[in-house]
Amino acid sequence: xxxxxxxxxxxxxxxxxxxxxxxxxxxxxxxxxxxxxxxxxxxxxxxxxxxxxxxxxxxxxxxxxxxxxxxxxxxxxxxxxxxxxxxxxxxxxxxxxxxxxxxxxxxxxxxxxxxxxxxxxxxxxxxxxxxxxxxxxxxxxxxxxxxxxxxxxxxxxxxxxxxxxxxxxxxxxxxxxxxxxxxxxxxxxxxxxxxxxxxxxxxxxxxxxxxxxxxxxxxxxxxxxxxxxxxxxxxxxxxxxxxxxxxxxxxxxxxxxxxxxxxxxxxxxxxxxxxxxxxxxxxxxxxxxxxxxxxxxxxxxxxxxxxxxxxxxx
Length: 314
Ligand SMILES: [Mg+2]
Description:
The protein is about 30% helix and about 25% strand. By secondary structure, the chain is an alpha+beta fold. It folds into two domains: about 5-135, CATH 3.30.1330.10; about 150-305, PurM-like C-terminal domain (Phosphoribosyl-aminoimidazole Synthetase, Chain A, domain 2), CATH 3.90.650. Strand 4, helix 3 (about 95-110) and strand 5 (about 115-125) form a beta-alpha-beta unit. Helix 2 (about 60-75) packs parallel to helix 3 (about 95-110), helix 2 (about 60-75) packs parallel to helix 6 (about 195-200) and helix 4 (about 160-170) packs across helix 5. The longest helix is centred in the first third of the chain and has 18 residues, at about 60-75. The radius of gyration is 20 Å and the shape is globular. The chain starts with a helix and ends in a 10-residue tail after the last strand. The model has no long low-confidence stretch (mean pLDDT about 90). The structure holds magnesium ion (MG). Magnesium ion binds near residues 209, 210 and 212. Magnesium ion (MG) binds next to helix 2 and strand 8.
């Protein structure tokens, strides 16, 4: 088995021109330059195959997704992603896995100008922990606690696709065309962190988070921390064509309660919406922040009662 040092240097040590990295991989720790007047935004996520993605997921997709979920958290804070630290536990030194995994990870890192500045490999059950670091100007970070009564509630992209992709991956009976199934599986395996949207929302959105555990549950965090409620219009939920092929109850369940979409959900006043610049992802208004606490659902103006239990970690 190649040594830890050999593995890291073979798959994760790359020459990259990045002025913010004073010292990268190779010393005991990295030295990083935070831009003046900005603050460090730090997040970490552990990714366990079989738990956070189906066992059959490709090593390339695992590399992408393990990083994507971390970058999505930075996007939700309005941060610019900069640096990544990576800890991998592997049952054996599987070079095929490392080659594909690192290719998937670096493809996404390069797309967003992120530098890997530290790594650690150990022998053990397959598990990947990534720490992503970004920066944001002081006072401009997006948080979960500022939603105001009357603000619009928005989501990016479409919701429920990854949940439907998981059903496909698990072989549950779903009547989709081959193309629709492939689309949903790609949404599950290759979530796109909405970084440009997060940057555009800086200083404008009153609250923001990324949808990892289901729209209803995650929006609930904003409502709770902001001490407000919400009225949501089910007929406004942005849905892909595969989602629309399902019976309405299944569609709403996936759109509201399935996790892994990694779209942003945010609140914005009408005044600030007018100031928002165009970004590379569509956004849809799905409701309004209310004084009355709790989350109420409507379809064509009629109140609806739907099970909205999202992903439970324990
Ligand atoms: Mg998050």
